[in-house]
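Morning!

This is the sequence you dropped in the shared folder:
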Amino acid sequence: MYKRLLIFGITGLFFVLGLNYLVIYPLQQTVTRELERQDKVYWSTFNAVEQFGAQPDNASEQKAKAALDEARAKGLSKTRQLILQNYFQDLEHCYQGDRDACKKANSDMNDAIRAPR
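The structure's back. Tokens below.
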């Protein structure tokens, strides 16, 4: 009886480890790759918006808009898109003279830096 229980336990252990190796590990790798891709798109877009914030001219504004459109096309998560879009719009309003937007742009920048995955 003890031998059967031991064999059953060892077989179960190998089954669980094999299932982990065949199913869970590849799924985890896929999720990790997608998160890395999302991070790359997010931070390149963030840098373009940040550049517009540092130097608000027509060229940097067009680059920021193009980066936001590209992020949308590349499938950046809706939450991250919204954070970057709000930050960009508040910077635009700030440079048009809206004082409240300038204050909000700072908090939006902090939100963008701490963006959720």
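Headline: The chain is about 85% helix and 0% strand.

More detail when I'm at my desk.
O.
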